[in-house]
Amino acid sequence: MHIEKILETKKLSKKFGKEYSVRNLTISVKKGDIFGFLGPNGAGKSTTMKMILGLLHPTEGEVKVFGKKLDNSVKNSVLKDVGCLIEEPSFYPNLSGLENLKLVQKLLNLPYHNIEKVLNIVKLEDQKNKLVKNYSLGMKQRLGIALALIKFPKLLILDEPTNGLDPTGIREIRELIKSLPEKYGITVLISSHLLSEIEQIANTVAIIKKGELLYEGELSKLEEQPIFEIQTNLINQSFEVLQGLGYTVKKQSNDTIQIMNSDLNKRAAAIEALVSQQIKIYEAKSVTKNLEQVFIEMTSDLERKF
């Protein structure tokens, strides 16, 4: 079955002076994805998004949008089907939300009913005539998404869309983003430092650190590898016994060790080995990592290598 690729980067790199902000980045966003683009501050997320939008020229590599290599000959025709909200949205504060949308609608020669549709989608119908300078932060974020959606793009790129919002505002933006692929056929690339939010909306993620790709794939596969935790009275001795038997282990706390990537038989054998050494077992259980745990482990491991 052929799956349409909405966005691809191939060995994409961007160098500022002697330093690489992005290096050899290859990712693929499929039609209908909500693709979480994750990394610590300074990882190269915003730089990558700006190259995807043609705002920065790559040092090396290429960007393909809707199967077409992004260059000057096709940039305008391709990007007309891309909407974006990068960093903070920009408005005319002394105009109403409706007037701000009208400016973009006329500039892009779009039908007026697009305004009515996006106001409904972001739930600003009752606030459309209010001056933007009097909008709350959450309302401004929703208006920014409305401006990105007004041409009903095939691809929507969002950089920290819940930045600074309270829990209610975050939930509203989350539900809005989740509805876009199914209701409107819009594929979403979203960057956020709120990993719990990405975990609730994304089906695919890419994790980068220092401009390099650490992981790309389905979120469920990233989280599905269970860990076996054993609470014991002799943590150091337990660690040495299991490590000596070839287990991949780490100390979770001062009385708990974790066994990575083990099946049921290996777990049973581990407990038997510890008991045979007169080590007490207080608790043994299987736990599943969430996205935050995986992210911290991945990015911390890379930091140690440097």
Automatic annotation (TrEMBL):
Does the record bear Transport in its keywords? Answer: yes
What GO molecular functions are on record for this protein?
Answer: ATP binding; ATP hydrolysis activity
Stored Pfam families? ABC_tran (PF00005)
Q: Which InterPro entries match?
A: AAA+_ATPase (IPR003593), ABC_transporter-like_ATP-bd (IPR003439), ABC_transporter-like_CS (IPR017871), P-loop_NTPase (IPR027417)
What keywords are assigned to this protein? ATP-binding, Nucleotide-binding, Plasmid, Transport
Of which family is this protein a member?
Answer: Belongs to the ABC transporter superfamily.
Quote the PANTHER family the UniProt record gives: ABC TRANSPORTER, ATP-BINDING PROTEIN
Know the name of this protein?
LctF
Source gene?
lctF
